[in-house]
Amino acid sequence: MKYSVLEKNLIKQLQERIRDTTPGVMVRAYQGGKIICDVAVGNTFAYYDLASLTKIIFTQKAMMLAFDIGKWTFESKVADFLPWFVYKDIKLTELLTHSSGLGWWLPFYQELNQNISSDDRREQLRLMLEKLKIEKHETAIYSDVGIIVLGYVLENIFEKPLLEVWNDIKNRFYSGTTLEFHQDNKTTTKLSLFAPTEECKVRQRLVQGEVHDLNCWAMGGVSTHAGLFGSIDDVGWYSLNLRSKLMGIARYSIRQKTAQLFAKRALPAGQGDWAMGFMMPTPGSASCGQYFSLDSIGHTGFTGTSIWYDPKMDMSVVILANRVLYGAENKAFSKLRPEIHNWIVENYRKSGL
User: Fold this and answer.
1) How far is CA 313 from CA 97, 273, 291, 340, 349, in A?
2) Sign for the pseudo-dihedral over CA of 150, 154, 155, 161
3) Pick from 265, 260, 285: which is nearest to 275 by CA?
4) FRET label pair with 35: which of 141, 204, 236, 294, CA 20 to 30 Å apart?
């Protein structure tokens, strides 16, 4: 394969840095809608557990579509759609911006009965969610729990089970991609094509081809907070789809005005770096590095995945890795991720592309 100067430089930089950080890493960057970098270093795979990228590829996209067709407004309450939800003043926007006061994570998997159907487990989980405690904070607290609640909201809005909601979203926005949930934690695709994640103490096996997140796994592999699997092509397509909507060059589905509204900073300075479902850069410690503007939007995934788009540079960077194979507590990848973004921008500027 013939690499550009940018790609050769990035490969060398990655080769020197991934040891003890991740078994391998795939990086793709676009500028102006065109690929400027596409490299794979180390032991890489066709498909990855996208982890929390599910939150923007599926959940945020579905909520944005529902908003666009008039199913809810920024004043809508969670209880408008879920009468069982105890906290009647919590808005849907607060779930999307992680400012509801719901806790960041709870071990639901410990109580979900694996001997009943996934539909019955969703009902079991709903009963647990009814008993949630909310503790308001001055700043946003990242919450898987809040995004899980949005799954029940989406089922109400679209009047169908969550997996069917996803199938509609995929057909509308991602037709032709290999993005998929592994329902009941099973797949017909060869397991060796999936990046292994962790030696799971709960499941007592190496996790490969089934979701790493234990709550999603216990829910049957389908959720709004995690569960999607995909390739670098798939996540790259998502980034191009996002760009097209923001720039108004997509000829179908969500209006540009809606896409831009959801990409705007939604919380006051100091309260949290969130748009509607998107992460935004935290000055001085952004996972997209030092060059991406404060208007950038994206998300990270626990397994070692991320997508960031900067509308000012018209640049996006997609990263897929399985860093958790070296241990979930290994923090080295969080330092590498912003460096990758910095290297791409620096190499791009030097190359004169």
Assistant:
1) 25, 19, 9, 16, 11
2) negative
3) 265
4) 294
Instruction: State the Cα–Cα distance between residues 184 and 199, nearest whole angstrom.
Output: 20
For 134, list phi and psi in degrees, rounded to 5: -110, 135
Distance between CA atoms of residues 130 and 148, nearest Å: 12
The answer to whether 68 and 108 are in contact (CB under 8 A) is no
313 phi and psi, to 5 degrees? -85, -10
| pLDDT tens by residue, 57-87 | 999 999 999 999 999 999 999 999 999 999 9
Distance CA(191)–CA(26), nearest Å, equals 19
Q: What letter would DSSP give residue 237?
A: H
Strand 24-31: give its sheet, edge to edge: 34-42, 24-31, 315-321, 305-310, 297-301
Residue 138: burial class (beta carbons within 10 Å; 0-12, 13-18, 19+): exposed
CA distances to 40, 64, 228 from 28, rounded to whole Å, are 9, 26, 19
Instruction: Tell me the residue ranges of DSSP E strands in 13-137.
Output: 24-31, 34-42, 48-49
> Where does the chain have alpha helices with state H?
5-17, 54, 61-68, 92-96, 118-129, 144-158, 162-173, 214-218, 232-247, 256-262, 332-351
Q: Is 234 helix (H, G, I), strand (E, B) or coil?
A: helix
Phi–psi pair at 94, nearest 5 degrees:
-70, -30
* 135/131 Cα distance (integer angstroms): 13
Say how far apart CA 157 and CA 63 lie, in whole Å: 9
**Residue ranges in the chain whose pLDDT is less than 70:** 1, 250-252, 352-353
Phi and psi at residue 316, in whole multiples of 5°? -130, 150
Q: Tokens 């709550």 correspond to what residue?
A: 215
Structure-block tokens of residue 159: 């009047």
The model's pLDDT over 238-288, given as tens digits with 9 standing for 90+, comes to 999 999 999 988 666 899 999 999 999 999 988 999 999 999 999 989 999
Of 236, 238, 237, 219, the residue nearest 227 (C-alpha): 219
